[in-house]
Amino acid sequence: MKSKFLASAALAATLWLVACGDEKNPNTPEEQPCTECGALPESSSTTFPANEISSSSVSEPVSSDSSTPATGDESCTPSPVTYPQEKFVDIGEVYKNIQCNEKVVFIVRHAQREASINSQSALTEDGYEAAVKAGNKMPGTEPFKYIFSGMVRTYQTAAGIAVGRGETACTTGYAPDEDGAEHFAVACTPQFNPDTLTQLKDGWYLKDKEIRDAYIAADTANYLKNSNVMITDWVYEGNYADAFYDLDARSKEFLALLVKDYKDMPKYTLAASHDQVLMPLTAWATDKKIDIKLHDPNSRNWLNYLAGVAVIVNDKNEQRYVAIKGMDDNVLPDGTVYDGGIQ
User: Fold this and answer.
1) How many CB atoms lie within 10 A of CB 49?
2) Residue range 129-185, pLDDT digits in tens
3) Is pLDDT above 90 for 219?
4) d(CA 271, CA 105)
5) Average of per-residue pLDDT across 220-235
6) Coil, strand or helix at 276
7) Bridge partners of residue 106, in order along the sequence
8) Distance (Å, whole) CA 135 – CA 228
9) Are the C-beta atoms of 139 and 110 separated by less than 8 Å?
10) Partners of 325 in the β-ladder
11) Which helix (H) or strand (E) holds 188?
């Protein structure tokens, strides 16, 4: 049974409602990042009845051992691990193989969300638990730097991963928005405060929305009924190029927002973003060897929840990229293995 927060309307608003922008191009000036995104203010003294809150399972931070990445010292002897470009690699596998002279930025799509795609759509309970499990794959005592897009679902994804790592403890439940509709909500103690980067929102690669919409309006064959089809057709085939930025230049510009000089970077960064950012970025990072070709009738693949790109940077500021997945593979009833990185 779904647990509910027994709280006043004001508290529910504090817990849930946020002043986020919508899914437009993030470069437009009217968009503002949310400041709370489901987080309970640190100053709040409100308590909840224990039997009315479901507490997320929290993994205690573990001590470093042979399976935990090295943190770097004078005796560092790196042995970088290479990965195939045509497949998604488990995020935990990449994490444990980060070398003593390497740092990493994990950029992942948010976990499973509600059917709505507006700025306030939250994760589902299953989505949040998947984020916690992804965090379980990356144990260790060194904290992550967390970044989210300003959308509720990316905040909750980052929080779930932090819970899975043992960096925070969160309670979950359901709280109403201003219209009375109930949504999944998360409150963390100690307060979980990731950085906000609005460029992580959908729209980063979209150059001209009017041109894109004109293509869709003129599509009598209904080929573009899902605008994501247009994105993969642009990425892999070069079609509709007038509606989008140059893939190579725009991808490098995006990474420059997250990847700094090696000496100025934390060891681990986790950025929670969206599919229309990460699908083109993942294809670019793998030299288009990864199959996320929604436009191809023989493929029909799209980037899954909690999948994306790991950017590994060494002490010479050399970058390499790995397509990553935060969810495990599934075996379908017919025996087909469903890649956790592909939706």
Assistant:
1) 9
2) 999 999 999 999 999 999 999 999 999 999 999 999 999 999 999 998 888 888 999
3) yes
4) 7
5) 94
6) helix
7) 270, 310
8) 28
9) no
10) 90, 307
11) strand 182-189
- pTM (global) more than 0.85: no
Provide the residue type at 215 as one letter. Y
Distance CA 112, CA 116 (A): 11
HSE of 176, CA atoms in CB hemisphere, 13 A = 9
Q: Scan for tokens 């984020």, then name that residue.
A: 131
Please choose, from the candidates 144, 167, 205, the residue with its C-alpha nearest in 3D space to the C-alpha of residue 59.
167
C-alpha to C-alpha distance for 100 and 113, rounded to whole angstroms? 36
- What type of residue sits at position 328? D
Rg (CA), the chain: 20
> How far is the C-alpha of 205 from the C-alpha of 221, rounded, in Å?
25
Contact 230, 224 (CB under 8 A): yes
**How far, in Å, CA of 91 to CA of 110, rounded?**
14
In contact, 78 and 229? CB cutoff 8 Å: no
* Residues contacting 218, CB < 8 A, separation 6+: none
Q: Which residues contact 248 (CB under 8 A, 6 or more apart)?
A: 284
